[in-house]
Amino acid sequence: MEHYTIATVAEQSPDFRRVLWTGKHTQLVVMTIPPGGEIGEEVHEVDQILTFVSGVGKAVVSGETRKVAQGDLVVVPAGRKHNFLNDGPNPLVLYTVYGPPEHADGAVHKTKEEADAAEEAGQDEPPTA
């Protein structure tokens, strides 16, 4: 059994992205977006559910913008263009579940730049069956 006090785990991770657990059908990831930062506009071929632990920001999904804060949850269906931006003074901390997995099992990317470089180099591919 995997067990996490997820808000605490997310708050304690200084990394932009850290894969906590990867299963056959889903993946659990924590993220910390620094003030003024963003995930970056992207489209996944997987579903994504994001739950915000602390901080404030904006969710942009399919051209619609909403404010997000602690306790909010946003669903991004596969194929939808999205971005999440930190427009507050503190880190925007969240955990997200991808279905199926989107990132390499155990991946840790300290910064967005490191995450982008790993993706571009093909070093952040999800496990195959």
Brief digest:
The protein has helices spanning 6-12, 112-120, and strands at residues 17-22, 27-33, 42-43, 47-54, 56-61, 64-69, 73-76, 81-86, 92-99, 108-109.
Written description of the protein model:
It is a single chain. The protein starts with 5 loop residues before the first helix and ends in a 9-residue tail after the last helix. The radius of gyration is 14 Å and the shape is globular. It is mainly beta. The strands form two sheets. Strands 7-4-9-2-1-10 form a six-stranded antiparallel sheet. The chain is 12% helix and 43% strand. It contains two helices and ten strands. A hairpin with a 2-residue loop joins strand 5 and strand 6.
Question: How confident overall, as mean pLDDT?
Answer: 96
- Give the CA-based shape: globular
How many helices?
A: 2
Task: Return residue spans where pLDDT drops below 50 for at least 5 consecutive residues.
Answer: none
Give a count of the beta strands, DSSP E runs of length 2 or more: 10
The helix content is: 10-25%
| Cα separation of the termini | 21 Å
- Spatial extent as radius of gyration: 14 Å
The amount of beta strand, in percent, is 35-45%
Largest sheet: 6 strands, antiparallel
Secondary-structure element string: HEEEEEEEEEEH
Would you tell me the structural class of the helices and strands?
Answer: mainly beta
Oligomer: single chain
* Main β-sheet, spatial strand arrangement: 7-4-9-2-1-10
Domain Cupin type-2: 30-98
InterPro entries: Cupin_2, Flavonoid_dioxygenase-like, RmlC-like_jellyroll, RmlC_Cupin_sf
Protein name: Cupin type-2 domain-containing protein
Biased composition (Basic and acidic residues): 103-115
